[in-house]
Amino acid sequence: MAPEPAEAPGEWRARARAFSERYLAPLASAIDREDRVPDEVVRSLARERFLGLGIPEAWDGAGGDTRSLSAALEELARGSAAVAVLLSVHLAVCAHPILRWGTEGQKETHLRPLARGDRVGAFGLTEPGVGSDAARLSTRYERRAEGFRLKGTKMFTSNAASAGTILVFATHDPALGPKGISAFIVPPGTPGFSVAQRLDKLGLRGSETTELVLDGATLPPESLLGSEGEGLRIALESLTAGRVGIASCALGVARAAFEELVRSVRAADAEWARGELARAYAHLASAEALVERAAELKDAGRPYVEAASVAKLVASQAAVSIASTGVSVAGSAGARAGATAERLWRDARVFPIVEGTTEIQELILARGLLGDRPTSNL
To answer: Are 247 and 341 within one domain?
Structure first.
């Protein structure tokens, strides 16, 4: 389905920048300190139609393409990385997969309220001890007369504590490998489903990260997304799109850290710091070009797996490098708990891990360069 560019990427960027500077930036420290995105922020995202970006207007979305979403995420992340990641997960790995694979009934029941911002979406794939090999999922599902019964645990699930729709992946039989995995739409309140704990994190505080337990959760037949055995494909394609979103968030943090670095260099007035600033700009410019390229390829309907991985890899590295330099140049003031430079550094450190680690991105890129046949690793 072709995207609907109801507004140009530049218009979405301007809207997101104004929203970020006016509303998010003043709240960023409190969001980080309290580890919570206020409900009013989510309602404001809905009013501004950010929660429907990339979803056709026919489903109450805001239209727009990948470049529009990427621009918006970057600008929002400049103000609050936690809020930008909340939006990226909601759209890229929950709402958009339902748009891509859902039935008309599923879109009516789940996609429309997600697009309006009446509810937030989440994505449950990662499990304790499984790492990045999705074919080794231990969460099981059984076919029942009334539908499906799920049992297992999911870890590091973003948005799940307050989500109204969660995509969960389970296997019918581990011996079937990738062919045994299916995707399910799980609404909170499902008997046998619970949020076991909310995890404390170094950075991206405010972006919920939780452990989910499915203890015999029973789902109706219409909860199956796509066909049985199609779950791994849905997960991998969603994560590839998600990496463009997370790369955009990392780019936004890198840009915010660069702006903070500029202020510190001016204050320090030291010759050595000017060289650090120049190197930081080179990292930022490289990341920006790669993120733009990945978004453009996706919008053009061209293969973009490697482009998404290199964008995520380089943008994450740029965020960490620039934020680390920012703390060093700012000195003791930048290392103080609660300082902007310190918060940006902690946020940046999470990006090489989420949506596929640095090592996984390197593996994906190496396979592409060598023409190797892909496996199930993310």
So the answer is: yes
CA pair distance 311, 75, nearest whole angstrom: 17
Task: Give the closest residue to 99 by CA, choosing from 228, 230, 1.
Answer: 1
Could you confirm whether 355 is annotated as catalytic?
yes
Query: In DSSP terms, which residues pair with 215 in a beta bridge?
Result: 151
The active-site residue out of 288, 355, 359, 362 is 355
| pLDDT tens digits for range 260-304 | 999 999 998 878 899 999 999 999 999 999 999 999 999 999 999
Residue 1 in any domain: the answer is no
Containing 130, the helix (H) or strand (E) segment is none
Residue 309 CA, distance from chain mean position: 13
> Does a structural domain hold residue 211?
yes
What's the number of domains the chain is made of? Answer: 3
Cβ-based neighbours of 238, under 8 Å, separated by 6 or more: 92, 93, 96, 97, 123, 167
Q: Does one domain contain both 30 and 83?
A: yes
With H, G, I as helix, E, B as strand and everything else as coil, classify residue 259.
helix
> CB–CB of 320/258 below 8 Å?
no
Please give the pLDDT value at position 136.
80
